[in-house]
UniProtKB/TrEMBL annotation:
Organism domain of life: Bacteria
InterPro entries, A to Z: BofC_C (IPR015050), BofC_C_sf (IPR038117)
Lineage: Bacteria, Bacillati, Bacillota, Bacilli, Bacillales
Residues annotated as domain Bypass of forespore C C-terminal: 143-217
Name the record gives this protein: Bypass of forespore C C-terminal domain-containing protein
Assigned keywords, A-Z: Membrane, Transmembrane, Transmembrane helix
Keyword match Nuclease: no
Transmembrane feature ranges: 20-40
C-alpha cells in the first residue's frame, strides 16, 4: 500500500515538474527569440547603413567615371576630326607650370604623326584650335625658367598679390593672384614683412612659390576657396 502511494505521489510530482520545465523552457525560448530579433534588427540597420554608404560611394565613382568618359569622348572627337582630313597641321605645345607658361611650335605634322605623338604622350591634352592648328597642353608642377631666373611675388599698385618678371618696381606683371586686404595686413604683420612684400619676394622653387601664396592667402579679399583655385592655376 505504501508503495502505491509513493508511486502516485511521484507521478504527481513528475507532472508538476514537467509543467514547470515546459513553462521555463517556453519562457526561455521566447526570451531567446526576442534577443535574436533584436540582434537581427541591429544587423539589418547596420547593413542598411552600409548599403547607403556603399550606394553613395558607388554614386561618386559613377560620377567620376562619367566625367572621365566625357573627357575621353571630347579627346576622341578631335582625333576623329583630325582623321577625316589628310591636311598637315601646325602643332603647338603649351607648357603650363605652377608658375609661368611656355609655348613652342613642334612643327608641321600629318594627322598620323599627330595621333602618334598624342599616344606617345598620354599626359598631354590635345585639341584643334580655331585656325586649324593642333594644340597640346602639358601641366608641370614646377617653375618655368622665367620664374626661376627672375620671378618675384609682390603687391602691385592696385593692392593685388602678383607675380612679377623682376622686382615689382619694374611693373612687369606676369600673373595676378588675388586682391589683398591691405589694412588688415598693415595692422597684423610686422613692418619688415610688408616692406619685403613691396620690394618683392624672390622665388626660386615651387615650394617657396606655394608658401608665399599660402601665407598671404589669409589676407585675400576673395574667399579662400577661390584663392586656392588661383594658386592651382
Amino acid at each position: 500500500m505504501n508503495i502505491f502511494r509513493i508511486k502516485k505521489q511521484l507521478r504527481r510530482r513528475w507532472r508538476r515538474w514537467r509543467r514547470a520545465i515546459w513553462t521555463a523552457g517556453g519562457s526561455g525560448l521566447v526570451a531567446l527569440m526576442a534577443w535574436l530579433g533584436l540582434l537581427l534588427s541591429n544587423q539589418m540597420e547596420q547593413l542598411m547603413t552600409k548599403d547607403a554608404i556603399a550606394l553613395e560611394t558607388l554614386g561618386i565613382i559613377e560620377e567620376a567615371a562619367i566625367g572621365a568618359g566625357k573627357e575621353a569622348d571630347s579627346e576622341a572627337a578631335w582625333i576623329k576630326q583630325l582623321e577625316r582630313s589628310e591636311q598637315p597641321r601646325v602643332v603647338r605645345l603649351n607648357k603650363i607650370y605652377a608658375c609661368g607658361e611656355e609655348s613652342s611650335i613642334l612643327g608641321t605634322m600629318s594627322p598620323d604623326e599627330v595621333i602618334r605623338l598624342s599616344r606617345d604622350n598620354p599626359e598631354w591634352r590635345g585639341m584643334i584650335g580655331a585656325e586649324g592648328d593642333v594644340q597640346f597642353e602639358q601641366r608641370i608642377h614646377e617653375l618655368s625658367e622665367v620664374c626661376k631666373n627672375n620671378g618675384y611675388i609682390g603687391i602691385d599698385q592696385q593692392g593685388n598679390l602678383s607675380l612679377f618678371d623682376g622686382p615689382p618696381e619694374k611693373e612687369k606683371v606676369l600673373k595676378t593672384f588675388f586682391q589683398l586686404d591691405v589694412e588688415t595686413m598693415e595692422s597684423s604683420l610686422p613692418p619688415d614683412v610688408l616692406l619685403h612684400l613691396h620690394q618683392g619676394i624672390r622665388i626660386q622653387d615651387v615650394d617657396e612659390y606655394n608658401s608665399v601664396l599660402s601665407t598671404f592667402g589669409e589676407y585675400a579679399v576673395l574667399p579662400a576657396r577661390k584663392v586656392m583655385q588661383q594658386k592651382e592655376d
